Amino acid sequence: MTAREPRGxxxxxxxASIAAGRPFAFVSFxxxxxxxxxxxxxxxxxxxxxFIAEASAAPEVTGVVDIGGGDVPLSGEVGMEPxxxxxxxxxxxxxxxxxxxxxxxxxxxxxxxxVLGRTHDGGIVARVxxxxxxxxxxxxVLNEMGKGELPITIRRYAATLAPGxxxxxxxxxxxxxxxxxxATPVAGGRWLALSSDGRAAYVAEAQGGLIDVIEMPAPGAPxxxxxxxxxxxxxxxxxxxxxxxxxxxxxxxxxxxVDTTSPLHPARSEPRALPQEIxxxxxxxxxxxxxxxxxxxxxEQGNQLVLLDLGPxxxxxxxxxxxxxxxxxxxxxxxxxxxxxGDTLWILSGDTPRSLPIGPQxxxxxxxxxxxxxxxxxxxxxxxxxGVDGAGLPARLGVGRAxxxxxxxxxxxxxxxxxxxxxxxxxxxGGTAVFRLGAEDAAAVVxxxxxxxxxxDVSPDGRWLFAPAVxxxxxVRVLTAAIxxxxxxxxxxxxxxxxxxxxxxxxxxxxxxxxxxxQP
Length: 520
Known about the structure:
Elements: H1 11-19, H2 21-39, E1 60-66, E2 86-88, E3 92-98, E4 105-108, E5 111-113, E6 115-118, E7 124-127, E8 135-143, E9 146-155, E10 157-162, E11 167-174, E12 177-185, E13 189-194, E14 200-205, E15 210-215, E16 223-229, E17 235-240, E18 246-251, E19 254-259, E20 267-268, E21 272-273, H3 276-281, E22 283-288, E23 294-299, E24 304-309, E25 318-323, E26 333-338, E27 344-349, E28 364-369, H4 374-378, E29 382-387, E30 391-392, E31 397-399, E32 420-426, E33 432-437, E34 444-449, E35 452-453, E36 457-458, E37 464-470, E38 476-482, E39 495-499, E40 515-518
Parallel strand pairs: 2-9
Antiparallel strand pairs: 1-3, 3-7, 4-5, 4-8, 6-7, 8-9, 10-11, 10-40, 11-12, 13-14, 14-15, 15-16, 17-18, 18-19, 19-20, 19-21, 22-23, 23-24, 24-25, 26-27, 27-28, 28-29, 30-32, 31-32, 32-33, 33-34, 35-37, 36-37, 37-38, 38-39
């Protein structure tokens, strides 16, 4: 009997069928799989690419649907949230069409997107990659026969945390700067970080051991979806690796590393005890390297920079140290930050509330080169030191993003000459300002305000600087400045309200400076 023959054939035919058992079994198996394939949900992930037809023509894209920021399973159905017609950085896309083939390439806004799976209707599940331009952008599918594409609107958020206000304010980063995009209530928030793929915002309490997880690609607006308990203890810093799924929760006596492979449902590990000299030295600031392998901690006592190795499981040994100003008995270290490439560590020092009683201190930026050689880490030294006379009481650092360089058409600067930004008092004329230090050995004011400014950040394309400013009544605005030299279009948004004035959780005068982070 063959696959085409009716049942009940002659004995000879049945005997022939038995003799040709392997072909019969194979055809029957394929028939069964095809039957099951036809009954499968269109949302179900194809586990074997054998069941995807090879390309015989150029792809045709018939639809692109945004389905939220959830994880895509290796098997089973794809979880879907209601589409709002706009794709946020990190959001999952379900691409419909024909002729995609078995190994298509997907580009979103010209940037390669990771193909997370294929569905039984022949569709593609992919994620909006970091660095995608905003606005209407093509979603293109390419195979060996050609290309098909369809546009979708891309959105990028900037998150602003104003500790003591009980809120995270959102602004949308567009071609002309920032526009207000609502707020999310978050109780007790003190520290802010964004996942490396832009899907999640993490807000840590100063006390209590809870981290709020906010889904940024949620339909309509970001929303709080999960709370992670990392254990009791005062959080002194929260830092996320730019290129690795690692979130560091730094506390007085230990550091908790959180696995953000699944950014919306991160998993904590057991706390790692900090070396005794760090616990005794009191932590002023901390940051994690882009690859998640090093933790930099600035201590108040002795004004030391210490590098810890996060590689050994359960431990965080010291692999390098740098004495910034050991001769000064009060703490003058304000902030530390790794450069985006991870090859440089910036240190900001100057007046602090602790040092004011002993007199004014110069505001200085130091660039320390970081390498993979253990000998280099063991003998750290400043590659560059720049004083900023017009700045006092420096606050937080914002590292600039390196712009793409045209092949053969640009001169690469040493890493310590890339741009870095920080907020500080502007003296004179008064008020506060964001200062920029680039290749030149003098810092320039980028934006000034009578209000108090917090940690600034830069758009991924390197065009815009965003700085949060908090007024005496607790209202927070985001100030926008063009930093790439291109003219600003008429009517561009230069200042937007993101958090309204109100009593909040603590008096406005007692609140720490706000923080701002832009999706990658």
